[in-house]
Amino acid sequence: MASHDRDDQFAPSRGRQTTPTPNAGGKGLLRKIARRAMLERGLLPDFSSSVLAEMKGITTAARESDSSVRDLRSLLWASIDNDDSRDLDQLTVAVPGIAGVVNILVAVADVDALVKKGSAIDGHARANTTSVYTAAELFPMLPEKLSADLTSLGPGQERLAIVVEMTISAGVVQASDIYRASVLNHAKLAYDGVAAWLEGHAPAPKAVTNVAGLEEQLRAQDEAAQSMKAVRHQHGALSLETIEPRAVFDGEELSGLVVDERNRAKELIEDFMIAANGVTARYLVGKGFPSMRRVLQSPERWQRIVMLAAASGEHLPGEANAGALEAFLAKSQQRNPDAFPDLSLSVVKLLGRGEYVIERPGQVVEGHFGLAVKDYTHSTAPNRRFPDVLTQRLVKAAISGEPVPYGDAELGELARHCTEQEDQATHVERQVRKSAAALLLASRIGERFDAIVTGASPKGTWARILTPPVEGKVVRGAEHLDVGDRILVELVRTDVDRGFIDLARVIVP
Asked: With the C-alpha atoms ordered 202, 203, 207, 213, is the resulting torsion angle positive or negative?
């Protein structure tokens, strides 16, 4: 998404010189910027001595002999994540039934088994509420000995998990259950390799062919996920495809920016996680428990979205309507797939940001507009997000018949805090992306680029250069511009330390 956290007080200062070389300092410079940004945003870049001391007492993964913990190690569980991911939160498996019915099982790492409520480790996780992924350095929510090992669902490792089991028919969850289990990851797979195979562009990865039966297993998962995706989009889930450039390094030097594109394997995991989060939310409701919901209410600037559609010759209703918006997006993607990420970016900014709220027994809160789901919590990434740890504790208490582990006022405060800290973490990640972009463009002052306006407010106007995909502030010629406008810009200044890229609009006669 675009980054619009630069205030007017940070307008370009007169006399400051542009960074002299494109890659001066490289990763080391970006690392310093990342750590400073963490502190400025009220996030903890390092673990305290109390956390480190507590970690010394944790030497093995959690084990339980309780008969209620099912032994599901023999199922063909596999993880699908980024190539370099070590903090593996979920495994998936399909159990085909008859007449097109399939059971999809999602195993979520039981982080709570080692990270106890009120511990020093829990305190750090509660303070930051999320792992922060920057181009130069990862700031994990949990010590890596946990998140990348003892609570990660790594290949060949027996681990405790919370399993969400869903019976899927014609893309719809017909029945579901949640329980504790012991699981084993039989294959660590990567999005790109699995997607290329599923889409018919490459043979199956060796990690797939090395496990007997895994090819058929993944085909069954893909078929179920595609049917679930189709149903969600029929109900108005939005087909959004935004551009998030990722820094690429040659050793310590920044060499470029690449865009991680959506693919079929990412969609598979996304659809299963959305379904599992919905099942978890409904499970807690059924047990009379509160839950922390992730909601995106009606779009903040629906009328501007209506105008964007009108500029393409399409009509949207005057009141926010997810189904109508999805139909417009789907048509736009089919008509002009190359321009679709730019349209998506504009719509994302106009939709606004999500937030955490508490749904208490007997109370109904809004669902998630962009996902077209009413019941949505965060539960499937406890190694990376504190709301998921909190939800896991609620679920485990509900399973075992124990009292709610958090007080009502505490839950409300945690929802507010998690929303705020997630926003701060996003700012940090954006800051480092912007600094990396400024570093990459520092030697290209005076060049002209095609761009799209990504933000327009009293604080300023921003535009994203199409190639390379980086964003800057329009410091000259921004009058009357709005989100979605296409313009020509000239690069006039960069400031790597603060991540500023200043652009001037070029009017072509």
From this structure: positive
